Amino acid sequence: MPKKKPIPSHLPILVVEDDGLVRMVAVDMLEDAGFQVLEAGSADAAWAILERTPAVGALFTDIDMPGSIDGLILAGRVAERWPHIRLVVTSGGQGLCDKEVPDHGRFLLKPYLQGQLLQAIAAAA
């Protein structure tokens, strides 16, 4: 399999997490790795951001969140509308395998380390 190209530095990663502290840690991990980051506290808020800013390199979303849709539904809708966005889904309560994430995305179990997050983003199609 050919090596995947890195996400271009001008494309931000959208972090979707309802727990403010967990979101802050994820954002810090990505910013420390040199990424630009956008944040949302729900899938609904993330969708609104994507409507305004579709030039996103990756979506990193928790599954369980308040609002009209959860993170897994968000990932599926993003895959349909913006197939160029890499998908990484996370949860501390649900265990999925990668093949259950839409569009060749990746699943990352909480708690995770920075290296694991970066590896999941790099491995997502």
Written overview of the protein:
This protein is α/β, with parallel strands linked by helices and 125 residues long. It has 4 helices and 5 strands. It has helices at 20-32, 43-52, 71-81, 114-123, and strands spanning 13-16, 37-40, 58-62, 86-91, 106-109. The chain has a 5-stranded parallel sheet with strand order 2-1-3-4-5, sandwiched between helices. The model has no long low-confidence stretch (mean pLDDT 93).
Number of helices: 4
Total count of strands: 5
Radius of gyration: 13 Å
Structural class, by secondary structure, is: alpha/beta
Largest sheet geometry: 5 strands, parallel
Sheet-strand content, in percent, reads 15-25%
CA-to-CA gap between the ends? 12 Å
Overall form: globular
Largest sheet strand order = 2-1-3-4-5
Query: Order of helices and strands, N to C?
Result: EHEHEHEEH
- Average pLDDT rating: 93
Share of helix, binned: 25-40%
**What multimeric state do the chains show?**
single chain
Stretches with pLDDT under 50, minimum 5 residues: none
Topology:
Elements: E1 13-16, H1 20-32, E2 37-40, H2 43-52, E3 58-62, H3 71-81, E4 86-91, E5 106-109, H4 114-123
Parallel strand pairs: 1-2, 1-3, 3-4, 4-5
